[in-house]
Design a protein that fits this description.
alpha+beta, Umud Fragment, subunit A, eight-stranded antiparallel β-sheet, four-stranded antiparallel β-sheet
């Protein structure tokens, strides 16, 4: 009997060791994926509506632009500049570190490339003197101010490389609907939010609490896919203390949508 108990104890210890090894291996794989391949981010503000909503959770591809010190936890400065670099494309939705503090994560759309001249006139973007076409495309309905539904005009913009996306323009001739010219320095990018009247972006200089031009080194990666979305921007939505409401607070239709 004692021999049988000893064998059972040995098997139990062996199972625990195997479980521990599998757990450590899984954590190591998850860490490698997060550091080198895809990192999850969530959207805390409405600056990218209607492309991205508050409560969206994204996978951001770090492979897309290569690696800089901002690609790693704690901003470890392991090498100068960027390795395996691939430049952002006009129209990419990208996550980057805010240049004025190099620590806050921001997400905006790449509008201007190094050397570009950017102007905004009555809400219309001009790149190197050429107007970015925009066409009215319905309304975006939101309840961000409470219970009353608000309709915000939606426009489809088309960049010179053919990339199309939707923008919101709630206030005609808003605070940053007339701005520029901006000359994008070498090695930098001009970023704008899709929610044009509710986005602190490259139109706003750092001296006024804005983003300014974003150095290539500050890019973390390209937003690729939405893997989860909770309607936290709606009144009393995603009520954590009422789990029976969760299926209705989750935006099921946004799961696994590509970010464009």
């Amino acid at each position: 009997m004692s021999g049988e108990l000893q064998r059972k104890g040995t098997k139990s210890k062996g199972s625990m060791t195997e479980t521990l090894i599998v757990t450590v291996q899984a954590l190591a794989i998850a860490m490698v994926v997060r550091v080198f391949l895809y990192q999850p981010f969530n959207i805390p503000s409405g600056s990218m509506k209607e492309t991205l909503l508050v409560g969206d959770y994204l996978f951001v591809s770090k492979l897309s632009y290569g690696y800089s010190r901002f690609s790693f936890p704690l901003g470890l400065n392991l090498f100068p500049g960027r390795i395996l670099a691939a430049e952002p494309k006009r129209g990419d939705v990208a996550v980057f570190k805010l240049p004025r503090d190099n620590s806050t994560d921001y997400i905006k759309r790449v509008i201007g490339l190094p050397g570009d001249e950017i102007n905004v006139r009555k809400g219309v973007v001009f790149i190197n003197g050429k107007e970015v076409p925009r066409v009215r495309d319905g309304d975006f309905v939101t309840r961000e101010d409470g219970t009353n539904a608000i309709k915000i005009p939606v426009y489809e913009e088309t960049l010179p490389n053919g990339v199309k996306y939707k923008v919101l323009d709630r206030i005609p001739n808003g605070p940053w609907d007339n701005a520029g010219p901006y000359i994008v320095p070498a090695g930098h990018y001009f970023m704008m939010g899709d929610n044009r009247d509710n986005s602190t972006d490259s139109r706003v200089p750092p001296s006024e609490g804005g983003v300014g031009y974003v150095p290539f080194e500050n890019f973390i990666g390209r937003a690729d896919i939405i893997f989860f979305s909770a309607a936290v921007d709606e009144p009393e939505a995603f009520r954590l203390l009422k789990p029976w409401t969760w299926p209705f607070d989750i935006r099921w239709s946004r799961f696994f949508n590509l970010v464009r």
